[in-house]
Amino acid sequence: MSDENPICSAKGCRVDAVWVLAWNNPKIHTPERRKTWLACEEHREHLSQFLGVRSFLKDVVALDEWQAREAAAGDDGAGGGAG
In the predicted model, is pLDDT for residue 13 greater than 80? Predict the structure, then answer.
């Protein structure tokens, strides 16, 4: 991750992200694959609903918790980033 703070994925939003929305499209992704969108507090629900009505949403996690999981996965050699 860069020195800059990650920003919300909502169109036109430039606010710092605080949530990670993990999702996958079962028509094109394997079941374990996770794509991610970032969300600020204001857009978390809207983005979650967008993914949810399509049955794409798999998990909503606080950004700091997601980063800690990614760091731990890197430390044990398991790897496995989303994206």
Answer: yes
* Residues ≥6 apart with Cβ < 8 Å to 31: 24
Alpha helices in 1-83 (DSSP H): 41-53, 63-75
Q: Rounded CA gap, 66 and 82, in Å?
A: 10
- Identify whether the C-beta of residue 16 lies closer than 8 Å to the C-beta of residue 6: yes
Q: 36-46: per-residue pLDDT in tens?
A: 999 999 999 99
pLDDT of residue 80: 43
Q: Which residues contact 80 (CB under 8 A, 6 or more apart)?
A: 73
Of 20, 16, 26, nearest to 81 by C-alpha is 20
Spatial distance between the Cα atoms of 70 and 83, rounded to a whole number of angstroms: 12
